[in-house]
C-alpha cells in the first residue's frame, strides 16, 4: 500500500506540472490565433500556421490534462442511477469503470505509439505550409497518454485492494463519482482563496 500511495503522490505531482504546461500551450495558441486574426484584419497579412499549431496545442493539452482529471475525479459521469445504488455495488462499479477506461486508454496508447513509430520510420511531415515533422506533436500527444496510464495503474490497484479489504470509503475517495456536496465544498474553498488573495491585493 505504501508503494502505491507513493506512486500516486508522484503521479499527482507530474499531473500538476503537465496540466500547467498543457494549459500554457493552449493559452499561447489562443494568443497566436488572436494576433493572426488581428494582423489579417488590420494589415492583411498572416503569420501562417496559427491554426495548425493551435490544433497541436489543443490535442497535446487535452492528453496532458487526463491524469489530473482522473485523480480529481473531474470527468463527467452520468450518476442518476449510481447515487441510488448500495455503497458496495457502487464500489464494484467504480473499479469496473477504472478497468474499462484503463483498457481503452491502454489500447489508444498502443496505437498512438504505432502511429509515432510509422512517422519516425517514414520521416513524415504535415501537408501544410509549416511542414511540421509529425513525430513532434505525436510524441507530445503520446506522452500525455503514457502519463495517464502511469497514473491509472496504481490508482486501480489501490482501489482494488481497498475493495478487497472492505474499505468502501477509500474506493469512493479514489474512484467514486463526485457528489454535489464535494463540488460545493471545493467551490467554497476556491472562493475563499480568491477572497483572501483579493484582500491582500487591496
How would you briefly describe this protein structure?
With 202 residues, this protein is an all-alpha fold.
Task: Write the topology of this structure.
Layout: H1 2-42, H2 50-71, H3 87-122, H4 135-164, H5 168-175, H6 180-201
Helix pairs in contact: 1-2, 1-4, 2-4, 3-4, 3-5, 4-5
Features:
202 residues, mainly alpha, 79% helix
Commentary on this structure:
The protein has 202 residues and is an all-alpha fold. The chain has one domain. It has six helices and no strands. The longest helix has 41 residues, at 2-42. It is globular and about 65 Å long. The mean pLDDT is 90.
Rg result: 21 Å
The total count of strands amounts to 0
Order of helices and strands: HHHHHH
Main sheet record: none
Number of domains: 1
